[in-house]
Write a structure and sequence with these properties.
Helix content: 25-40%
Order of helices and strands: EHHEEEEEEEEHH
Distance between the termini: 42 Å
Strand content: 25-35%
Structural class: alpha+beta
Mean pLDDT: 77
Shape: globular
């Protein structure tokens, strides 16, 4: 059940460290793309093989990321809490598919931002809207790309450390 309260979208986005440095105007611009979705306990957010094109921000509740072993046994990879997010690479890549499952393990509220919505800002830039709006869009997108790439690099380093 989608909730379109723009103010709660800003509050949800503020939970994510990569957005903390954005000013109010930039935050509201990103919030226009956010969609809040409620999940009940045990409901899947996505399955292995589903298209991966969304940034998920946990507003409240808990989400379990897990994979299935060859024998079909569930293996928990991590638990996401309010303020945690996933899918940051998905909004930067051309096309991808989920390699795990995500399940709400309590009543959960998620803010989702789809890649196509972020791509809309690129189209605004290309279609020559006002200089100020172009400047704002370009600034927000560049900050997001940089923050997401830095976060992704940190995650890769952590993964390598864990596997050693």
């Amino acid at each position: 059940m989608a909730n379109h309260n723009h103010h709660s979208h800003v509050d949800c986005i503020r939970l994510v460290p990569i957005f903390n440095h954005l000013n109010d105007e930039q935050m509201h611009l990103i919030a226009q793309s956010a969609h809040e979705v409620q999940y009940v306990k045990n409901e899947l957010l996505f399955r292995f093989g589903d298209k991966d094109d969304t940034l998920y921000i946990i507003n409240n509740g808990l989400v379990r990321i897990y994979s299935l072993s060859e024998s079909g046994r569930e293996q928990t990879i991590r638990i996401l809490h309010p303020g945690d997010f996933m899918g940051e690479v998905a909004v930067l890549q051309t096309e991808g598919y989920h390699s795990n499952y995500a399940e709400a393990i309590s009543e959960t509220s998620i803010c989702r931002i789809h890649k196509k919505d972020l791509d809309q800002y690129y189209r605004i830039l290309q279609n020559g809207y006002s200089y100020q709006k172009n400047k704002l869009c370009k600034s927000v997108l560049n900050l997001l790309k940089l923050e997401l790439l830095i976060f992704y690099q940190k995650m890769l380093k952590m993964k390598k450390t864990i596997l050693m």
